[in-house]
Amino acid sequence: MKILIEGYSYEATERMLAIVHELTTLESIDHKICVNYVGYFYNPHPDVQDCVFILPKVLLDDHDRVFRHIAPEALIDVEQCHQLTEHERQFIYEFAVWIYRAIVVFSKDPSQNDIVLHREFPQVGFRKRRMSNTYLDIIHALVEFNRLNKSYFTFILKNLHSGFNRINWAKTITRTTAIVSDEEPFYLRPVNRKRTINFDEELLIIFFSILNYIHDHYGFPVEINNGFELIKGKRFEQYLKGYGKNRLKQIKYKYFADKALQIWELCYAFFERAHQIAIPSDQREYLIVKNFNVVFEAIIDELIGDKLDTAMEERLKKQPDGKLVDHIFKYRGLTTNEGERDRGIFYIGDSKYYKIGAPVSEGSVYKQYTYARNVIQWNLDLFFNDDYESKRLRREVPKLRDEVTEGYNITPNFFISAAIDDQLSYRDNIKLAKNDDKSKPEYISYHFENRLFDRDTLLISHYNVNFLYVVALYARDNAAQKATWKAKVRSMFRREIQQLLNTRYDFYAMQALPGVDTRAFIKEHFQEVLGKTFKPSKEGDFLSLALDKRFEGENGRLVNRLRNYFVVKPCKLGENMETAVAVGQNEISTSGDPERIYSYLDKQATVLVGFVPDKNRAEVEEQHQYHSGPTFPSFAGYDINKIKYFAPYYKGKGVSGFYEVESIRLRLGGDNTVRVFFSLGTYHDLGMQVKRPAPLRSHVYNITTLSEMLQQAKAENSGK
Questions:
Q1: CA–CA distance from 231 to each of 225, 262, 419 (Å)?
Q2: Which of 34, 123, 370, 647 would bridge 658 by S-S if both were Cys, CB 3.0 to 4.6 A apart?
């Protein structure tokens, strides 16, 4: 068995030229050979006549060493490489199988046929033998033997079970005592023809148990039709650890038929992992891919990505500027905890297939930012356009921009790099990249500081995934296992990105105090809160506030100002905003100060106080309109066009709030008198701040300022 490493530059010696003889590999000007394939081929060259595995470059560290201590040249003849530990040697055997299986699964995609080179394995037979040191050869031989010899197994099983458990009445009568009841004998211990040990049956049990292990562990398609109780779990592990080989040696002398000897030989080769099996050595066979980075991308996309709607695929994954996004899927947003009600946002990923420890290039980082910007613009266009396709997709995709705060939802963006577990384990292991000279756990780009909810603030997180685990999971091609891992890793991505943001930002949940109009406040203080606030859900009236921890003084002053108008409570991403705000609501006194609540409004603005009969109440509250009577007063010293607020006065209740005046028009009434019509906008409630709002001293109309009205409300509420 020969081992080459993808992408490594070997000296162009005669030996190397013979090994790569089957590949169209050219020698460089400095007499180097670099093999840019991954996979398996058999080389029939007279000086080689052996299997050659080209393993992925992810095995190489930044010093071009395999397992951090072996030069690739020393690994070419794996059986003669004395630097290998037994654990590393066994790892290579198994790893080669997983790579083969992954390429087989990948080759099922017809769109990728241009990078897959494949010629079938030859069948096992009693022709010219070759020394097969590859675990893959042995596994494939076992699977092929089972497929080609179904009639043989049926014949053997039929003979084994013929007469099974049939009672031998002659021996039963002569050797056991009968119990007589109603003159009829009953034999409680009949003698049957069951054998104590059947070596043919034991060999078949071992053979089919191996096939079952190959199917469950590696995902090879294997059909097993027998009635035996197979060896599984802990028992089979003992066979793998040496008992299987020892037991086969003990029963070998029982077999003389050609087929039985072939089965024994295949089983023994499996447990020994280096044995002569009958495979023709004069045929070419290969399964290799030209660009394994495409295979790794397909593996990750299969395990975490989504199959998008065709219209989304054309715009999101195949972006209009020619960029191709590796992975994109819709999952729960970072700012909400709505569960099933969460319509989700798009997560954008890029897989990185490098040597161990290789850094992400600056170009890749900028390209990833561009992916996110394109997705954000697509989302905006979706809500600007009125064509049928946009209207259809709007039902599936939430708007990234919040109309209340004009903040943008956070678009999760990540790199996922291949890494090898230090213990060469196939365990499930995915974690943030280390923060060192070569890699970072996160990258951030912004146009304005301290504005997380700005469309130009983009964050990328970087994860390392155990290459061995994802290759094995993909190669098994088990839909249930893949779906389970997909759900788990998506939840982990969301949680990890939330934790990264919680480390960099202080998050708060906000809810307007009684009487405070959120929209009006945001409009009045737009520059102060732009990019810092976001309304994560259409349900409820909660806002999320995000403040960069680097600006502690500035943040403290803003929070103090906001607490005059909002309940503002710390609430990290991932925590329930409603629960956090409820704690804050319990701390608020029911007797607020209207002047403090509305300090953000223009206190010197003119307020018209007008009497509203009960019959006209719906016109004001539902239609947001108010019109004067025929005797609208003329107040000296004010201009009617300067009226900014209208406060409805209700009989017996007084003033409990006021409206913003959007426009004023003059119209003729039915009696040819001039009436003044007011179009009313946002309502500001005083009733929840004033326990018993008293009537303002006026008959039908009054002109005052907002400051005077708020002071009067405060005085009356305090009992003055």
A1: 15, 20, 34
A2: 647
Q: Among residues 563, 592, 621, which one ends one of the domains?
A: 592
**Residue 264: inside a domain, yes or no?**
yes
CA-to-CA distance for 410 and 412, rounded, in angstroms? 6
Q: Kindly state the DSSP code that residue 40 receives in the 8-state scheme.
A: E
> What pLDDT score does 527 carry?
92
Q: Cα–Cα distance between 511 and 515 in angstroms, integer?
A: 11
Q: Do 588 and 601 fall within a single domain? A: no
Tokens describing residue 338: 């709505």
Question: CA distances (Å), 63 to each of 321, 361, 439, 657, in order?
Answer: 37, 18, 16, 74
Q: Which helix (H) or strand (E) holds 264?
A: helix 258-272
User: Which residues of the chain register pLDDT less than 50?
Assistant: 122-133, 195-197, 199, 274, 276, 278, 282, 589-591, 636, 688-698, 720
User: What's the rounded Cα separation, in Å, for the pair 661 and 680?
Assistant: 5
**Where residue 698 sits, what CATH number does that domain have?**
2.30.130
Within-domain flag for 125 = no
Q: Is 52 a member of any domain?
A: yes
Q: How far does Cα 537 stand from its chain's mean position?
A: 22
- Predicted confidence at residue 128, as pLDDT, reads 45
pTM over 0.85: no
Are the CB atoms for 206 and 267 separated by under 8 Å?
A: yes
- Backbone φ and ψ of 540, nearest 5°: 75, 180
Kindly report the three-state secondary structure assignment for every residue of 442-481: EEEECCCCCCCCCCCCEEEEEEEEEHHHHHHHHHHCCHHH
Joined together, the tokens standing for residue 330 give 């819709």
pLDDT value at residue 25: 66
685: nearest Cα among 644, 655, 715, 714: 655
| Predicted pLDDT of residue 168 | 76
617 vs 615: CA distance, rounded Å: 6
Residues with Cβ < 8 Å from 51, sequence gap 6 or more?
1, 2, 40, 41, 42, 43, 132, 133, 134, 136, 137
161 with 232, same domain: the answer is: yes
Same domain membership, residue 460 and residue 346: yes
Q: What share of the chain is helix, strand, coil (3-state, %, to 5)?
A: 40, 20, 40
Q: Is 311 left (phi over 0), alpha (psi -120 to 50) or beta?
A: alpha
Can you read off the two tokens belonging to residue 654? 């007084």
Cα–Cα distance for residue pair 341/541, rounded to 1 Å: 16
DSSP string, 364-432: HHHHHHHHHHHHHHHHHHHHH--SHHHHHHHTTS--SB-TTT--B----EEEEEEE--TT------EEE
Among the candidates 289, 316, 349, a domain finishes at 289
Spatial separation of the C-alpha atoms in residues 449 and 466, rounded to whole Å = 35
Same domain, 532 and 605: no
Go through 552-570 and write b for each residue having 16 or more CB atoms within 10 A of its CB, e for each that does not: eeebeebbebbbbbbbbbe
Domain residues for 512? 505-592
